[in-house]
Design brief:
This protein has helices at about 10-25, 40-45, 60-70, 80-85, 90-95, 125-130, 145-155, 175-180, 205-215, 235-245, 260-270, 290-295, 300-314, and strands at about 5-10, 25-30, 50-55, 75-80, 105-110, 135-140, 160-165, 170, 190, 195-200, 220-225, 230, 245-255, 275-280. The protein has about 325 residues and is of the alpha/beta class.
């Protein structure tokens, strides 16, 4: 784990896209009135001929991106996750997925990032939708190093993908991009323990590591797994831990239905014997509050995760 300061993933993505865009003029960024919230102002200044502003028209954003891809461009469509995966999901399914079109869909301000703006702006169902769409890879980077590794892959990949990021500056879980992102479908074990397994992705990975530290003080040693990619999924590693542990906890900034927990459950049900505990947002509109307050309320912060584990272990 690096001692470098926490960084916002969006800023790191902009740096990667500027670097790649200078080397490849086919890389273009499209935004739906979101260059500011997407941290893309530096890209617009550096490469003004490689950014397209479509305005608040997410369906057009996706379809135009698909058209550009068919013309040989390598588009990155950037929009708030709540709108990109709801308002324009038909275009994602038909224009991008159906024809296996090389469009990278970047859902910014994902999960509960918009906090007090409420359920209209939360994207707590996006993973459920996107992981069910054929041909679409699904990612949620957990720190700056994983973001760098992931985007070095994405700018070269010809496959469509959905990438969800939040707004927080994230503490580092890794020390370099090479260890943080190996390849699609390759999860990473960040910590080894013998008593319980914690499986997380994106912004819940640092919380899972905090929980492991708290649990160790209680004599409970936890393995922490960062899924890295939800689709493709590392079924080999999940099958292994589902036979090594009696209890697995999944932690997600998403509905408890059809997200990370459900993906892990599909593996455990067919190849393992562990009891699975899914920690996430309940089947109800999320409360209003800061992201930290909401995480604490639903038991998704380090202390809440540790408390849930202690209950089952005891």
């Amino acid at each position: 784990m690096s001692e470098e300061k926490a960084r916002k993933v969006g800023e790191v993505i902009c740096e990667q896209l500027v670097d790649a865009g200078k080397k490849d003029s086919d890389i273009v960024v499209l935004t739906s009135d979101s260059r500011g919230s997407g941290s893309l102002v530096p890209f617009a200044k550096e490469l003004p001929k490689q950014i397209v502003e479509v305005g608040i028209a997410e369906q057009d954003l996706v379809t135009i991106s698909a058209g550009l891809a068919h013309s040989g461009k390598r588009p990155f469509a950037v929009s708030p996750a709540a709108f990109l995966t709801m308002r324009s999901i038909e275009q994602v399914k038909v224009d991008v997925s159906y024809s296996n079109t090389n469009v990278k869909l970047l859902g910014i301000s994902g999960g509960n990032s918009y906090s007090v703006l409420g359920s209209t702006h939360h994207s707590l169902q996006d993973l459920a939708i996107t992981r069910a769409i054929p041909n679409l890879e699904v990612y949620m980077p957990c720190d700056q190093y994983q973001t760098v590794g992931l985007f070095k892959y994405l700018v070269k990949s010809d496959k469509p993908a959905y990438i969800r990021i939040g707004k927080k500056a994230l503490n580092n879980c890794y020390s370099n991009p090479e260890e943080a992102f190996v390849k699609p479908g390759k999860a990473n074990v960040l910590r080894n323990g013998k008593d319980v397994a914690l499986v997380a992705m994106g912004e819940t990975v640092p919380e899972a590591l905090k929980a492991a530290d708290l649990l160790e003080k209680q004599g409970i040693k936890a393995t922490v797994v960062d899924l890295v990619s939800l689709k493709p999924l590392d079924t080999e590693l999940l099958s292994k831990i589902s036979n090594e542990f009696s209890d697995i906890y999944t932690i997600e900034e998403h509905s408890i239905y059809n997200g990370i927990g459900s993906a892990v459950a599909e593996v455990v049900a067919t190849s393992g014997s562990a009891k699975l505990h899914i920690l996430g947002f309940p089947d109800a509109p999320a409360i209003a509050g800061t992201q930290d307050e909401v995480f604490s309320y639903y038991g998704l912060d380090g202390a809440g995760i540790a408390k849930n584990v202690e209950k089952s272990i005891s």
